[in-house]
């Protein structure tokens, strides 16, 4: 099919449901012009898939979908009365969430099959690895796209997004738009939630990267073993859709060797150890960037990056090993790594001419906070001041651990709010403080005031790290959101302190 002029065309119901569930003979030729699991998006000709949710059950919106013009209904719950006696054709399936992913892939003509698509999974580093891959692909002269925490990009256009990994229909729609735009190489972040919820089911990947695994999302997974099992699906179950996929796995991570053992695809390991297929040697970390030599097979690639900290050496290795596996020239890998400045909100400087350093980072797990604090300490500040909080309605067990990490590594810690959501901010702060070292922290629940306090405290040679929200431009409470960007708030606080960039 022509890539440039490729337009998704309507399908019939029989095509979309083939092999998934029986469709009455008289309904197989029904023309379907769209697919959705959101009744509000239904238009005339749309196939509505009722998916049981965690807050709302799609079966409760079947009548709304019919009212809005649904051409047919796919549902899971056989006891739901709304499907009885309706004049709209209905099809029952065992798992409507997984079925939705297959239908979406078929409706958009399996766009991932026309891309060299890379999946990036792991607790930390996904967004940075994504930006590094994009830089490498661009340095190689390739047409690129990305999907992740910062939204999506198609060539030079940005597409806003509200999830790291979009739902199944949104994902396939974005991939189809990339194909239409003649994108050839793309990378996407894929979370453990997305894997559990089959958002990328049926998607073909040329490569998949495993960065690391540390405590996060235990409100969802409950145990680290369950969390790890979700990640392994990408390197085992997805081989069914991606027989030629290469798994690029961090050997130095605690769970890396086990991931290599369980992977059912061809694998490349990366790390600082001599056993890794792709490894970094002669590593020099400095406040202005990292220098190291990447060994890829028999090749050696000297690199100087703008990124700081040992964790970014790993991020560069993962991106480089993947690009190498996909046939990208070493010169383009080097140029991309050296050109990349990192992702928004990742160790990002806020400069208003002040005699101290202000950095904003997305670190919101104990391991990520440790990494960025150690990297900040590597910049040799006079004092290290850390401002951070923990999100509400998320894994509570990590809160005291993050308090312990911050007060271990920072000279001054200000514990504050992040996105409290439905929880009481005072309660969250108290849980963080429970693990903090006595006498090493202060509490200021209001985040704006906490940032201002940290900047007012800083003097020449100090470093202020504002952690947890990174690129986010909002703060989320139980019943509302407010505009809140740590970078802008820090800039305003610097201005109030008499600093202003020229």
Defining traits:
single chain, 502 residues, alpha/beta, Udp-n-acetylmuramoylalanyl-d-glutamate--2,6- Diaminopimelate Ligase, Chain: A, domain 1, UDP-N-acetylmuramoyl-L-alanine:D-glutamate ligase, Protein-Tyrosine Phosphatase, Chain A, 3 domains, eleven-stranded mixed β-sheet, globular
Our Rg estimate from Cα atoms comes to: 24 Å
CATH architecture descriptor text of the largest domain:
3-Layer(aba) Sandwich
| Overall geometric form | globular
Number of helices: 16
Structural class: alpha/beta
Described by strand count, sense and barrel closure, the largest sheet is: 11 strands, mixed
Q: CATH top level of the largest domain?
A: Alpha Beta
Give the distance, in angstroms, between the N- and C-terminal Cα atoms. 53 Å
Low-confidence stretches: none
Number of strands: 25
In percent, how much strand structure appears in the residues? Answer: 15-25%
Superfamily (CATH H level) name of the largest domain: Mur-like, catalytic domain
What's the average pLDDT?
A: 94
- Total separate domains: 3
> Biggest sheet, strands in spatial order?
10-9-8-11-7-12-13-14-15-16-17
Give helix % range.
25-40%
CATH topology group of the largest domain = UDP-N-acetylmuramoyl-L-alanine:D-glutamate ligase
Q: How would you characterize this protein structure?
A:
With 502 residues, the chain is an alpha/beta fold. The chain has 3 domains: 11-100, MurE/MurF, N-terminal domain (Udp-n-acetylmuramoylalanyl-d-glutamate--2,6- Diaminopimelate Ligase, Chain: A, domain 1, 3-Layer(aba) Sandwich), CATH 3.40.1390; 111-339, UDP-N-acetylmuramoyl-L-alanine:D-glutamate ligase, CATH 3.40.1190; 348-496, Protein-Tyrosine Phosphatase, Chain A, CATH 3.90.190. It has 16 helices and 25 strands. The strands form 5 sheets. An 11-stranded mixed sheet has the order 10-9-8-11-7-12-13-14-15-16-17, sandwiched between helices. The termini are far apart.
């Amino acid at each position: 099919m022509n890539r440039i002029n490729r337009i998704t065309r309507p399908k019939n119901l029989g095509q979309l449901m083939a092999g998934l569930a029986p469709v009455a003979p008289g309904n197989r030729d029904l023309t379907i012009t769209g697919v959705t699991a959101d009744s509000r998006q239904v238009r005339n000709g749309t196939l509505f898939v009722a998916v049981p949710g965690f807050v709302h059950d799609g079966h409760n919106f079947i009548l709304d979908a019919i009212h809005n013009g649904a051409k047919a209904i796919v549902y899971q719950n056989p006891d739901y009365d709304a499907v009885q006696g309706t004049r709209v054709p209905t099809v029952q399936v065992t798992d409507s969430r997984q079925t939705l992913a297959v239908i979406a892939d078929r409706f958009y003509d399996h766009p991932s099959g026309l891309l060299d698509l890379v999946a990036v999974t792991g607790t930390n580093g996904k967004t940075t690895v994504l930006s590094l891959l994009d830089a490498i692909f661009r340095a190689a002269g390739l047409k690129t796209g990305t999907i992740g925490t910062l939204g999506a990009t198609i060539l030079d256009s940005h597409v806003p997004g509200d999830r790291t990994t979009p739902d199944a229909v949104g994902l396939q729609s974005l991939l189809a738009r990339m194909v239409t735009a003649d994108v050839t190489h793309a990378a996407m972040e894929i979370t453990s939630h997305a894997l559990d919820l089959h958002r990328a089911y049926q998607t073909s990947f040329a490569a998949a990267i495993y960065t690391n695994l540390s405590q996060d999302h235990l409100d969802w997974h409950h145990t680290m073993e369950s969390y790890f099992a979700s990640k392994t699906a990408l390197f085992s179950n997805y081989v069914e859709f991606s027989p030629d996929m290469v798994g690029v796995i961090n050997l130095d991570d605690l769970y890396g060797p086990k991931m290599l053992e369980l992977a059912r695809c061809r694998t490349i390991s990366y790390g600082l150890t001599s056993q890794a297929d792709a490894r970094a040697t002669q590593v020099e970390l400095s406040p202005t960037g990292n220098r190291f030599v990447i060994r890829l097979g028999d090749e050696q690639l000297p690199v100087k990056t703008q990124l700081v900290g040992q964790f970014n050496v790993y991020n560069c290795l993962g991106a480089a090993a993947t690009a190498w596996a996909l046939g990208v020239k070493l010169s383009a890998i080097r140029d991309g790594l050296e050109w990349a400045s990192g992702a928004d909100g990742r160790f990002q400087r806020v400069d208003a001419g002040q005699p101290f350093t202000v950095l904003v980072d997305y670190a919101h797990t104990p391991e990520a906070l440790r990494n960025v604090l150690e990297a900040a300490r590597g910049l040799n500040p006079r004092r290290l001041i850390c401002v951070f909080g923990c999100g509400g309605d998320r894994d509570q067990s990590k809160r005291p651990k993050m308090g312990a990490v911050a007060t271990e590594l920072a000279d001054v810690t200000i514990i504050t709010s992040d996105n409290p959501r439905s929880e009481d901010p005072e309660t969250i702060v108290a849980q963080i403080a429970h693990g903090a070292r006595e006498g090493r922290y202060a509490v200021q629940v209001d985040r704006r005031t906490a940032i201002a306090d940290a900047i007012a405290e800083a003097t020449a040679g100090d470093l202020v790290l504002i952690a947890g929200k990174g690129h986010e431009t909002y703060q989320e409470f139980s019943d509302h959101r407010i505009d809140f960007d740590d970078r802008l708030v820090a800039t305003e606080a610097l201005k109030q302190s008499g600093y202003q960039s020229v």
